[in-house]
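User: I'm writing a tutorial on reading structure tokens. Could you give me a worked example: one chain, its sequence, then its tokens, then a sentence or two explaining what the tokens reveal?
Assistant: Sure. Here is the example chain.
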Amino acid sequence: MILMKASLLTDPLPNHKVRCNVCAVRCIIPEGNRGVCRTRLNRQGTLYTLIYGLTSGACADPIEKKPLFHFYPGTQILSMGTRGCNFRCPGCQNWNISHDAPDEFGRNMEALDPVESARLARKLGCQGIGWTYNDPTIWLEHTLEAMTEAKKLGLYSAYITNGYATPEHMDLIGPYLTAWRVDLKGFSRESYKKISGLARFDPTLEMTKLARHTYDMWVECVTNVTPTVNDDEETAHGIARWIRDSLGPLTPWHVTRFHPYLELSHLPSTPIETLERFVEIAREEGLKYVYVGNVPDHPLEDTYCHGCGMRVIQRRRFAGAKASLVDGKCPKCATQIPGRFQMKIDPTTGERRPILFS
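And here are its predicted structure tokens:
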């Protein structure tokens, strides 16, 4: 059952039209129509979200799976998603939930109150809650209530996002959201158009800077390196320079392997050599923490101290297998490793305890 709830961040327009300001598309929606994400309906000049309190799935995951490598490693996050998306990525791995046809929308969904979802995370022994699978920006009314409750419970919260939000959106979530794991899908209008269906990518860059510098969220970036689309060295240099100059050289960047799917099934999987070259370029540009993703057991899944080069976290299959950090510092040279490592929440007592690794 769809629970219609009035949307946040709207502007009324003449003739019962409404502008939605939840994401950077800023749809102008005539009466009786929906926005690009298909999840917001204009009914007689009032815009309603159709996904509040509805989830397409929830799963307790290692935080490393998001991927977030420098954000409370070794903890569990309750991952949740809904339906719809403001992008139209032709190779989307979650197409079945991101791009429902309008007449199918709302099917195969379960009701879950946002406040109760945060409580569920704690009940399941997770240290945080995150929104993923489809883009969380379009789920604002739901995620805002859930992250507010999560903060009260001492849990962290994370957006796994394309970053296509608005400053107004960031103002609402900024006091509560603790991690912003953002996709940087390319570094040109051409590549972004091919990958997302939208040519503008400056909103993603601007919102990511806000997340990092204005709201002090922990930020990690991901680029799915797609053959013939965004796998050129100019793109690698451009993204690496932007991360270095706009977020800082200690910001983690994950360069992940593309696998053919849907409308991009004709493309090959990314050669591992291409990913390793991206890492080389990023290091040339001054980035200290660059990871290879979607290549199980690759040595560049591990974290190496930027001070002395010692391996301080070893990962295997989305998990922190071994860590030798001491209060977030390298045990060999005492360099502070960037990130948030220190504590987790005991689900039974609510106490904050040091993170331990096996």
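What the tokens reveal: Residues 351-358 have pLDDT under 50 and may be disordered. The chain has two domains: 5-49, 54-345.
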